[in-house]
Amino acid sequence: MDIRELNEKIQLESAFVDILTMEMKKVIVGQKDMVEKLLIGLLANGHVLLEGVPGLAKTLAIKSLAKSIKADYSRIQFTPDLLPADLIGTMIYSQKSEEFVVKKGPVFANFILADEINRAPAKVQSALLEAMQERQVTIGDQTFALPEPFLVLATENPLEQEGTYPLPEAQVDRFMLKVIIEYPGKEDEKLIIRQNVAGQFPTTTPVLKPAEILKAREVVREVYMDEKIENYITDIVFSTRFPKEHKLAKLEPLISYGGSPRASINLALAAKAYAFIRRRGYVIPEDIRAVCPDVLRHRIGLTYEAEAENITAEDIITDILNTVEVP
Amino acid sequence: MIFIRNQQNEIGKAFLFLLGIFFLFSSLSLSSQEVKVSLEPEKILIGERANLRFELSVPGDQTLNMPVFNETINEKIEILNYGSNDTIRYSDTNTLIITRTITVTSWEEGFHAIPPFVFFNVNGADTLALETDPLLLEVEPFSIEEQTDLKDVKTIFSAPITLAEMKYYILGVVLLILIIWLIIRYLKSHKKNPVPESIWEKPDIAAHVAAISSLEELRAQQLWQNGQVKKYYSRLTDIIRHYLEKRFQINALEMTTSEIMQAVKHIPEIRPVQNTLESILVLADLVKFAKQVPTTTENEMSLDGAFELVNQTKEEPRIEKEYQQEKKNI
Questions:
Q1: pLDDT higher than threshold 90 for residue A195
Q2: Closest alpha carbon within chain A to B238
Q3: Nearest to B289 among A284, A324, A325 (CB)
């Protein structure tokens, strides 16, 4: 398709982005970046992991997004005693029909809020992450496809580590984005105070149907990505794997493992979604740079040396972006 | 009584007669079986060899068994060579002559007795043992004259090396050379071509000189005229980025268009040509990433804009700068 035509198509199809963003802004104050990243996850069909200290409206943001779209929504509070059956469902005996029937779990919804995902043991995390990857669930001898769109938005609290089960690297890799939520600015915080003191909490209303999301996803996939951009993506991801070969020898002792091919795929998809949000039919290096930290931060393994020197994955990503030549 | 004594005398005479006949026949038989042994020489120096020769003579229908020789004859005499039997049969005299020579030596000086050797003559059921005479071997030491120089034992002579012995070594060396050559050839073929030093890396060339030279080169290449529009804009933006990096020390090569514009915003020299720079970079992004095909005018204007950018922001020579400053001060 011609880029001009694609641009026009995107102008039309992305109109809902503004409406959705406005609806979200009614409830969420000062978290523009988080809202944008949630939209990227929604449009690129990738799950999002939100990490932030308590009280930063993580849960509220996800709840608001789900409510803005006329879709099924489930909230699962992850606790240490949660079982996989509590999540995916189980077979129960019906006295009425005198047979075992399937009782579907809360995972059968369009939007899943997995609150404090690191509080549940590995087997529950595993059950959810399997559903995220396969987009289907097997209960007894029956396999059920999950509804479309299916998006898991999980939250993690970085402060309380006691009684938590950190997500293994292989499982955290299934999240397209890991978004770090920062504190709001002073002005935004004043607005939050006013809203809360007045006791008038705005609520979101559904402005979008799931079918529109699915249609938008199709358009996102059509966004043009030049080979130069693909090269830029691979350069960045390969820099995390073999820093020495990309003039980043100083990072060699700090990285224990680099991004997987899933990192490259997700970087490309997220960049396309970002370009869509910016109403562009093509990806430019800015798009890559904008989504790169969220796509890569949970995919780079740090060594003890890096941890000892308080070097974070973000520092490494910044170094990489400042070294890899932009096409 | 006298009769009995006479009878006993008769019997004794007859016995003596028969005994005499027996000895007569025995001596005749022995005389035809002979064992001789000789030593040549009987006197040797330490370690020299001597031959011990046996000669056995027996009737043709009889056999004479050789003694079994060990490694030594006695404690002092060693056998070096056991030799073999040499048999000659004389049919006219019906005699069998068996000869054998063994080689002996001794490493101790003195007189060493060679004991008699015993040979067994087997004749049907009868076996007769025949002994040789004992012999004496004299072993003398080497005479050392005190006046003469003593010489050390000669070292082992090294035999000349033949080609057959060396063939495996030669083959090994040839193989080693071949392997080294192949490795060198492989490395050379896989070695990346050394990147020639870029004009931007040469410190003695001013940023604007390098930029103008590169832009002239780009113009001469006529890339967009030959349909290589994408390559043309990639080169053009590369030159501009290199120039900005060398001239203003901003990492333009690792920056996106918006980041570059943000970085140059506060550089006073760039302010007059800021819009030109932005339009070139934005157009280049569209060509590179959005398949946009610019017009001929746009292509020419982009290159002209790049020349303008360089000419307007180039670093003035120091003397010129100082002169301007002085003029301002006056």
A1: no
A2: A327
A3: A284
CA distances from A255 to A242, A243, A297, A314, B309 (A): 9, 9, 12, 12, 41
Ramachandran region, residue A8 (left: φ > 0; alpha: ψ -120 to 50; beta: rest): alpha
With CA atoms as reference, the chain A residue closest to B254 would be: A325
The pair of three-digit structure tokens given for residue B275, joined into one six-digit string: 């819009």
Listing DSSP states for B97-138 in one string gives: EEEEEEEEEESS-EEEEEPPPEEEEEETTEEEEEEPPPEEEE
Sequence length of chain B is 330
> pLDDT band for position B26 (50/70/90)?
very low
One-letter amino acid identity for A132? M
Whether omega before A80 lies within 30 degrees of 0, making that bond cis, reads: no
Topology at the third CATH level for domain A225-323 = Helicase, Ruva Protein; domain 3 (1.10.8)
- CA of B260 vs chain A CAs: smallest distance (Å): 11
Query: How confident is residue B269, by pLDDT bands cut at 50, 70 and 90?
Result: confident
pTM score, two decimals? 0.65
Domain boundaries, chain A: 3-79+109-135+144-196, 225-323
Instruction: Say whether A225-323 and A3-79+109-135+144-196 share the same fold.
Output: no
**Helical pair B296-313 and B207-221, crossing angle rounded to 10 deg:** 160
Q: Are the Cβ atoms of A282 and B253 closer than 8 angstroms?
A: no
How many residues are recorded in chain A?
A: 327
Is the pLDDT assigned to residue B4 strictly greater than 70? no
CB B229 within 8 A of CB B287: yes
CB-based contact B290 A224, cutoff 8 Å: yes
Name the CATH superfamily housing domain B33-140. Answer: Immunoglobulins (2.60.40.10)
Give the pLDDT confidence score for residue A10 in this predicted structure. 84
ipTM greater than 0.90: no
Angle between helices B229-248 and B207-221 (to 10 degrees): 170
The answer to whether A3 contacts chain B (CB < 8 Å) is: yes
pLDDT per residue as tens digits for the range A265-297 = 999 999 999 999 988 888 999 999 999 999 999
* Helices B229-248, B257-264: inter-axial angle, 10-degree rounding: 30
Contact B291 A224 (CB under 8 A): yes
Inter-chain touch B289–A322, beta carbons under 8 Å: no
Architecture of the domain delimited by A3-79+109-135+144-196:
3-Layer(aba) Sandwich (3.40)
What would the two tokens of residue A278 be?
Answer: 């910016």
**Interchain proximity A326–B254, CB inside 8 Å:** yes
Which residues does B134 contact at the CB level (< 8 Å), separation at least 6?
B113, B114, B115, B116
Whether the pLDDT of residue B321 is over 70: the answer is no
Pull the structure tokens for residue A37. 């990243």
Q: How far A245 CA sits from the closest chain B CA (Å)?
A: 14
pLDDT in tens, B202-234: 777 888 888 888 888 888 888 888 888 888 999
Chain B residues whose C-beta sits inside 8 Å of any chain A C-beta: 234, 251, 253-259, 285, 288-292
Tell if the CB–CB gap between A326 and B285 is shorter than 8 Å. no
Residues of A in contact with B289 (CB under 8 A): 224, 226, 228-229, 282-285, 327
In a 3-state reduction of DSSP, which class is residue A178?
Answer: strand
Cα dihedral value B166, B167, B172, B174, nearest 10:
110
The shares of helix, strand and coil residues in chain A, as percent rounded to the nearest 5, are: 50, 15, 30
